[in-house]
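S1.2 Input.
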Amino acid sequence: MPLKKIQTYTRSALQLACGILIIALVIVVLQTMTGVMQVQGTPPGWTIIRPPGEVSTLVIVNDTVWTGGKDGVILVDRLSGAGRKPPGNAPAFGYVRQILQDRQGWIWVGHDGGLACYRQGSWDVVAPAPGVPFIKVLSLAERRDGAIIIGTDGEVYSFNGREWQSLLNSPGSLASADVLYEDNNGDLWAGCGSPAHGALYRLSGTTWTPFTVSNGLPHPAVRAITADKNGSVWVATGYSRMGGAARFDGKNWIGLTRADGLAGESTRSVYQDMSGRMWIGSEYDGIAVGTPGSWKILTEKDGLAGYEVKVMAQDPDGTFWLGTNHGLSRIEPGSLGL
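S1.3 Output.
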């Protein structure tokens, strides 16, 4: 190839690379400015905390908020909002799917690269390890007898501290156990978040019962499960711009969608606070707070850190902590305007 053509191609390549770099820098600057303006514009009693950048799970342990997500495990001081380093010699974490504090006070961290447990000041890497039948962990729960339940792709395992046991009657009958929950009756619920193969399953004794749209769920993809003070089971379902929440009274499913006052069609999280109000987070449109028939919608315009509310909790002081796709929102009691 002639030297002049080589020089021309090289110049064009450099110009293209410079253009891409400039666009990337502009995007970063705009995102930073938007984030700063958003933090500065939050209402009284509201605080946006970053890092973490994305929060898929959180638990509150004394004065520390443990968060997990794409950035691994990030700790936040509950009172000041300042970041804290994980205690001990913490292992490397992949995408953290769930953090669980068991009744003994041990902290379990399930992530794409395995399972770790923090207890008595030190970390124990549970998986990967010889004899452990999984690596990737999608969900965690603790049963009344103290057994730790692990949800994975295609399996649900029970760990009694000595051995692992599959809880499925037939391997592969569950596409993925993305969420686990034990209700007030001691039944174990497992939700699959796959849009194509999703469903909800209840384990009573040794019998699994499936629930899907034919039973009254708004959408097959199950994203979150909880129970209210009356014992009713609530689930958040949906994918993209489809879905809704549903409440199970023990016999029937009662569905709730955007038409009933929720923030968005696809629901991502569900929680009941100390006052009995339900919080139903959406995938794109913030969160609805209240009771059926009386909902208040909170979005980024109201002060939320992000548009997708993935998880939430309330600390002993009544302060609300909302994990979103773009950081952590801290809302003090009395500042909701409800």
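S1.4 Remarks. The chain is about 10% helix and 45% strand.
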